[in-house]
Known about the structure:
447 residues; alpha/beta; Rossmann fold; 3 domains; 8-stranded mixed sheet; 3-stranded antiparallel sheet; 15 helices; 13 strands; 17% strand; globular; disordered N terminus
Amino acid sequence: MTMQDQRTSIRGRSEVVTMQDERTSTPHTAVHGLGWPAVSPAPPRGIGPESPRAVPPSGVGWPVSRETHGSPTGTDPEPAAAKAESPVSRETRPDEPVGSRDEAGGNLAGTPRGRVHLGEGTQGATSRTSGGGDSRETAPTDAAERQQLVDSLPSPGADTPLAQAIAQEARKRIALTGRRFPKPAQTRVLTVANQKGGVGKTTTTVNIAAALAQSGLKVLVVDLDPQGNASTALGIDHQADVPSIYDVLIEGTPLADVVAECATVPGLFCAPATIDLAGAEIELVSLVARETRLGRAITEHAKASDFDYVLIDCPPSLGLLTVNAFVAASEVFIPIQCEYYALEGLSQLLRNIELIRNHLNPALHVSTILLTMYDGRTRLSSQVAEEVRTHFPEQVLRTTVPRSVRVSEAPSFGETVMTYDPASSGALAYLEAAGEIATRGADGRQG
């Protein structure tokens, strides 16, 4: 194609080449010396308002600010009225994320850390109460109001998968946040176990416990791992001189003397673990009734304190600490990472559970399996999930927990992801999983 170039010098600072297509008469603008169309984030210096400005392509929502797209002289060439009408140039509040919004002002694309916005208005979406300088938001309590709010959300087209994912998370957030879970008929004691490390046992324990407590249940977490990661995530002190689960197992200290309440989640309690627990495996060998010491302590404390759920976080091994956890519980909760090694470790774990059931605890059974670190972009995760669901159709939860940076960041702040970033995908997944567990317990379906 033949092009006719016409060069125009602008005050000696830069040159712009205008190329005229002889057949179509379509102008193409390019920065001189570069052979690509000038759709540039910022115009060359020295070009005034009368010169052609770089225009973003149709459908690309570039942010518009004076630092990048304003005039060099500091004056805004756009009329004030036009700027007020433009959704791109709209200035957002510091605590408001950029994203699509509904007509009532509810945020659909995301929420600031630590806040859950379900939209405000007469639909019963969110009611705010302030006390002690802390503003708290509660979700609609009536099922009809929740459904009405869900129905009011826009339905994105099939050709916009990102918008579909955002709308799905918004609906899930409305349905789950603030909902009170049903209480079980009696205290449920679940041992969270998997001898393979790194599958999300501690993360699952603390986040499921926090989700249950936020939904109106009273929950106790027993940290049976010498590393004490569950105690860290719940903000509980677990230095060497702190009364801990070690004293309960070895010294016979009542569990009530070591339990501490989580500061960020009312109704959530924790029996911390210290480094002394690392030697408990050896010390338990010579003690009488070494396999049942934890079970007796939990039974006595649960009756006196009226707990709805007791979750025991086990170490990644099958020693006496894990055996104590199996004897103390009636249900086994197994988090499984969506990788092949996790499947291999599952078969070994099931054999050990069968041994405990035959000799020490006939009521023990696998009631819940949760798929963690799920990555829907990989075929491996889908294959592992399908394999587990095929062999354990009744035990596997519908919910899968995706990989989430927020889940990994939360313990460094001494929090669970349920309080650190309740609007994140990981928090919503754990909240949904906790709802399934609570519903199964109330219906008597415990695997």
